[in-house]
Design brief:
This protein is of the alpha+beta class. The chain has a single domain (2-138), classed as Arc Repressor Mutant, subunit A. The protein is 43% helix and 16% strand. The strands form 2 sheets. Strands 4-3-2-1-5 form a 5-stranded antiparallel sheet, with no helix packed on it. The chain has a two-stranded antiparallel sheet with strand order 6-7. The chain is globular, with a radius of gyration of 24 Å.
């Protein structure tokens, strides 16, 4: 289910992927249900692609959300995030993910995680699994599309430069031969 849930840089909250167009995605806000387009210039991340730093290997966000869900019994986290101290946030997160990396996971990251969890629960999303189906193209984000277009553009530019160099060399040789 997390494959369809997106975070968009510069926009608060989480969004559900509704549809995919040529150069855009149609997303729906989990908080108010409003639909809007997002474009390839927006940085869009699927929650399925997010992981948390630990002292060992990174842990997928789906596992962390599942752990929070078990701890909270699928109820929202009752914590005033504006007044919560960094120590309080770290204590909560340690109860969920004991081996998290204290140097790389900041209190703001924990706040964002708790906000995301509460948004998902409020929207009725309690299935935090990640679908492993490679055939599902709907999870491809606009950022992936933009990256593919940039690679194609670079390949075309390289091809054009190579063609110009090879045709330019024969033209110079031909001109030089006539002069001499």
């Amino acid at each position: 289910m997390l494959n369809q849930i997106l975070s968009i840089t510069g926009k608060p909250g989480l969004y559900k992927l509704v549809s995919q167009g040529k150069n855009m995605l149609i997303v729906e806000s989990l908080s108010d249900g409003k639909r809007m387009p997002t474009y390839s210039r927006d940085k869009i991340v699927s929650l399925a692609d997010v992981s948390m730093y630990t002292t060992g290997e990174d842990v997928a966000l789906s596992d962390v959300l599942t752990s929070i869900g078990k701890k909270q019994e699928l109820r929202p986290v009752e914590m005033d995030l504006k007044k919560a101290t960094p120590e309080t946030l770290r204590e909560f997160f340690e109860s969920v993910l004991p081996n998290f990396d204290r140097d790389r996971v900041y209190p703001t990251d924990i706040q964002k995680l708790i906000k995301w969890y509460n948004l998902l629960i409020a929207a009725g999303i309690t299935d935090f699994t990640v679908e492993k189906d490679d055939k599902d193209k709907t999870t491809e984000t606009a950022a992936d599309n933009k990256e593919a277009r940039e690679e194609q553009k670079l390949a075309r530019q390289t091809q054009v430069k190579t063609q110009k160099k090879s045709s330019g060399a024969s033209a110079k040789t031909g001109v030089g031969a006539k002069k001499g």
